[in-house]
Amino acid sequence: MRLFLLTSLTMVAFAANSVLNRAALVTGDMTALQFSAIRAMSGAIILLVLILWQSGNLARLRAASITGGAMLALYLVGFSIAYTHMDSGVGALILFGGVQITMFGGALIARENIPPQRWVGAALAFAGLVVLVWPSDYSGSWVHAEIFMGLAALGWGIYSLLGRGAKDPLAATAGNFVYACLPVGVALMMLDGLRIPELTIALFYAVLSGAITSGLGYALWYQLLPQLRTSIAAIAQLSVPLIAAAGGVIFLSEATDNRFWIAAFLVLGGIALSLFPSRKRLSNS
């Protein structure tokens, strides 16, 4: 139960990033690239402070993986650039669909036993995601959608797979943010013309997203990943767009319709089916 609750909390943190992003951009006081840059730098700073507070030095950052930092950077840059040229719904579909494929591929390479009902549950949950975010008339840039968001999905999928081997989750996450996100944050600011955002509510949303729902949220994710089956970790993330949509309804007064409830039924039903013990496990118990 504790693992389920903490995993659910992590998915809420991931979804909160989308809600905070939308809330910041709606104000008109910040661009998407500025938000991503501040988010990256805020996450690095809060994690560095935590490491220093716990250990008194930064020696623990050696637990970080260069590959992990590179994959986190790939996710952040691909995500930021893609969303400047495409709708959020299609972006979420490509992102989480790509993450699903990457992590299931990793599970197969590691020879993880994936029961048939988990495949069915994953397909059902993904179908719900399609219902939730697929637009009726998409006119965005398919080049950006397929390349940049696809790269973001690959980066996050591999980053999550690497987290299963993290011996010191907090230090690994802090190192990944420092090695990848600080340089990436500066690069994104340069792409945006080095414009410094004003002290507004949008800046607060960006810092909150970086420090709490990204920095601490990603550290918690690395803490949980060794305890989760790779396929379960992949399926769980399909709930993020649904939670983000619900957050938009609650906090941003965004409209909802019957499609949302159909999607909710499919996504949650698929996840529940994936988590339910298989007949083989029940017969052996």
Question: Could you describe the 3D structure shown?
Answer:
Keywords: Membrane, Signal, Transmembrane, Transmembrane helix. The chain crosses the membrane at residues 32-53, 65-83, 89-110, 119-136, 142-162, 169-190, 202-221, 233-253, 259-276. It holds the Pfam family EamA. InterPro entries: AA-Vitamin_Transporters, EamA_dom, EmrE-like. The chain is mainly α. The chain has one domain (2-277). The protein has 12 helices and no strands. The relative contact order is 0.22.
- Which structural class is indicated by helix and strand composition? mainly alpha
Give the ordered list of helices and strands.
Answer: HHHHHHHHHHHH
Average pLDDT taken over every residue: 84
Regions with little confidence, pLDDT below 50 for 5+ residues: 281-285
Give the helix level as a range of percent: over 70%
- Please report the distance between the alpha carbons of the first and last residues: 19 Å
